[in-house]
Structures are given as C-alpha cells and as structure tokens.
Amino acid sequence: MAQSLKLVNRTSVFRNLTEMWAEYMRRNSEKVIKTHKCLADIPGPSTVSFLTDIFCKRGLSRLHELQLEGKAKYGPVWKASFGPILTVHVADPSLIEQVLRQEGKHPIRSDLSSWKDYRQYRGHSYGLLTAEGEEWQQLRSILGKHMLKPKEVEAYSDVLNDVVGDLVQKIKYQRRQSPHVVKDIANEFYRFGLEGISSILFESRIGCLETTIPKETEKFIQSINIMFGKTLQTMAMPKFLHKIYPNPWRKFCESWDYMFAFAKGHIDHRMADIAEKLARGEKVEGKYLTYYLAQEKVPMKSVYANVTELLLSGVDTISSTLSWSLYELARHPKIQASLNQEIQDVLEGRDIATAADVAKMPLMKAVVKEVLRLYPVIPGNARVISDKDIQVGEYIIPKKTLITLCHYATSRDEKYFSNPDEFKPERWLKKDESHHPYASIPFGFGKRSCIGRRIAELEVYLALSRILTHFEVRPENPECLVKPMTRTILVPGKEINLQFLER
Ligand code: HEM
C-alpha cells in the first residue's frame, strides 16, 4: 500500500513537473515570438526620401555620412531601399559581430553586385573578390597559401623596396617642379600602388613611377576610378534602366573591359617569357603570383580574372591609406617626429627598412591602425546569409537579405573611441585602453577577410619608413581641410597637397 502511494505521488509529481515545463516552454516561445521583431518592424527612411538623399543630395559620395545620420535617427539597425535592393544597416560593433559570427562556411559579401553582372555579361570568370561557394573556397585556399603566410609575404620585401625607391625619386622630381610641394599626393600613390602590386603579380616593372607614364598604365588607373565611380550607381539602378539611361552601365563595362585587357596583356607577355625560357632548357623560378597561379593548374580564364581583381585591389586601397597617413602626419608634427625617431632607432643609420625592421615599430602600426579607423578604405562592407534567417539584436533578419555593415559609423562612435574624429595613434598603444574588437575592422573579418592584408601592411610600412627618413612632411596650406568621400571605397574628397622638406 505504502509502496503504491509512493508510486502515485511520484507519478503525479512527474506529471506536474512535465506540465510546468510545457507551460514554461509555451510562455517562453511566445516571448521569443513577441520580443523578436521582424523585417517590417525595422525603422528607416521611405524609399523616396532615401533615393532623394542618394541621387539629389550627392548622397552616393556621402554614403559614409549617411551611416552616421541613419544611426542618429533610427538607432543601430535600420533599413533602406538602395534602388531595387533592400538593405538592413547594422551600426553597432556587437551587432556586427553577431552577423559575422553567423556567416557560415562560404561567406557571401553581396549577391547583387554589378561586378558580377559584368562578368556574366562578358562571359568572364570570377576572381577571388567576386567568386562564391566552392569556387571561392578553392581560389582562397590556393591564394591564401601564398598571400596569408608571413614568410611568403616577407619574400616580397626586396621587390617592394625597389618600388619604394622609385617612389622617393618621383617625389624628389615632383617637388622640384613646384618648390617643395607635391600636388595631389594620392595621384602619386595610385601609381605607386599599381607598380607595387604589378611587381608582386608579374615580377616585372611597368613604369608607373617614371616621369612619363606609359599611356596604357594611365588608362588602367583611370578605368579603376571610373569603375569605382559607377559601381554604386549601376547597383542602385534597376536593370531595365540600363537601356533607357545607358551611360553609367556602358562606362562601367568599358572600364572593366580595359582592366581585363590590361591584365591579360601582361599575363600573356610573362607566360610567353616563361615558355621561351623553358624551351631553352632554363630553370624557371617565379616568386610572382601569376606564375604560381598557373602552376597550380588554375584555368587561364580564372587566372585573368584573379589577376585583374588583385591588380585593382592593390591600387586605391594603398593610395588612400598612404595619402591619409601623410595628411594626418603632416598635421600632427609631434607624432610625425616620434614616428621618425622610432624609424631611425630601428634602422640605426640604414636607409632601407626590411620586414623584420617594421615589425619592431609599434608606433608605425598604431599610426596605420588609426588612419584606417578614421578613413576605413571600405566604409561599409556587406554580408548576405543565404541559408538561414538570423537573429541580429532584437530582430530576425530573413535569409538572403543584404546586410550593410556600417564600419565608418562604428569607428567614429564616441562610445567606442574617445574624441573619435581626432587622430590619436597613441590610443592603440595604451595598455589600459581597450576597444571593442569589431568597432574598427578595416580588413574585414574571418574567412572572407582581406587576403592582401599582409602585403598591404608591409607595403605601407616600407613606404612610410622611407618617405619619413628622407622628408619632413608638412601641409601646403594648414587651413585646407580634406574630408573623405565615398567612391565605392573611401577616398580623399579633394587634392591633398603636401610640402616635402628634405632632411
Ligand atoms: C590598406 C589596404 C587594404 C584594405 C584596408 C583592404 C580592405 C579589404 C576589406 C575590408 C575587404 C573585405 C573583407 C570582408 O569582406 O570581410 C577586402 C577584401 C579583399 N582584399 Fe583587401 N584591402 C587592402 C589592400 C588589399 C591589397 C593590396 C590586395 C591585393 C594584394 C587586396 C586584395 C583583396 C581581395 C582579393 C579581397 C577579397 C577576399 C575574399 O573575398 O576572399 N586588398 N580588403
């Protein structure tokens, strides 16, 4: 009797517990449904007002500022229709982290890009920037073996230092034309960027830093500028408008055509060199990337696409970073003097820094970090999570939604950086000052982050060390402020003119 009573009691306790658990789950799931808002609940400007901002108020070049305005008006998450594309903006480091941590095996940057449309239209292959899925994964692992390994990248120091030597000669030449001053320094750095990346890709020089620049090189640089200038416009225009208002799409395609042809010309030329050498029974030992890609049995069509994309990735990014670095150092003579001191202490009378030298320059690294915080080359990156709905803060974002990551807004947010608009490299050196790890991520994140990061950093450090060893840099006119402008990437809004005083 006592036994069976115990059993009844246990059974009813168990039943009660089960019911309580079920009730708890029911309430909680209701709460989940109630607390997680959906796409329709996300605030944002009406399509008309956003398009007016973009097209009538020069908004395309102010997209980075629209991030700040959007955040101030709607909070850290808002949505806007960019032409035919609805995009959810995320402008808080923790929320950006939340998106990126759910990006999956083959992250997608954006699946609606006019860059991809162009490749389909012309029947070109995709390069690493534009490829997706397994194709991207394969390219990434082939290129990563070369471009992400510190030792492999250090091997490019000598080649890059040759290019830096020519840059210094070019600055000397230019400052003789208008005493001490180099007008539009970004222009010199475009050429430097193209010469640097070409030397890595082809192991040969293409003459960008000579006093008379080859016409095709000039046209390649112009094509990059036009292509970047037209990228956002062609993305924001629904495809049917390409027929009614053909100019942007036509110019965009012409620029890409030229870039592909330029890369193909150089690749074919180098490949012919190799074939000749092999025919003569000579050994071919190429460190350069094009040769390496071909050796890895990457189809030639894909080599063309990859080299084109790598060439263009190495021009504006480097130019912008170096231009802003010198702009800020010229305006902050004390920081410039400390950096020069650091460089001279490490070089001990030598002129040319090596990869091992720049590794011993913490202020140099802090300066470049700070420059990229203030002027992130890619002010707004993106992700599309294609296989599942994801939670971002209080919202559930449906799969396949384009999510814009507002890096400019987070890196200029005073919640994460004190006096956010000031150039203060020392903030990266203070042990007691830490920053949210996703507040400034100029090279992106994770598997799809910048594959050229190590090359870019090395190139920028080597160039800055040599420039500061030779010159003290001052603004031509201290009153002349230069603001950034979006041209797909963030570039100086007007010319940066600097005085170079020989040391
Ligand atoms: C200061 C200079 C540079 C900055 C700030 C920069 C920044 C970035 C960023 C933010 C991304 C997107 C990352 C993401 O989506 O998470 C990216 C991707 C990429 N970058 Fe850079 N970049 C720089 C220089 C370079 C250079 C010199 C090269 C070529 C040598 C390069 C090649 C690439 C490529 C190929 C990708 C696409 C990677 C992929 O999709 O797997 N970048 N870069």
From TrEMBL:
Its cofactor is heme. Heme binds at residue 450. One of its GO terms (molecular function) is iron ion binding. The keyword Metal-binding applies. CDD domains: CYP27B1. InterPro entries: CYP11_CYP27_families, Cyt_P450, Cyt_P450_CS, Cyt_P450_E_grp-I, Cyt_P450_sf. Gene3D superfamilies: Cytochrome P450 (1.10.630.10). One of its GO terms (cellular component) is mitochondrial inner membrane. The keyword Oxidoreductase applies. Keywords: Heme, Iron, Metal-binding, Monooxygenase, Oxidoreductase. GO terms for biological process: C21-steroid hormone biosynthetic process; cellular response to peptide hormone stimulus; cholesterol metabolic process; cortisol metabolic process; glucocorticoid biosynthetic process; vitamin D metabolic process. It comes from the Eukaryota. Belongs to the cytochrome P450 family. This is Uncharacterized protein.
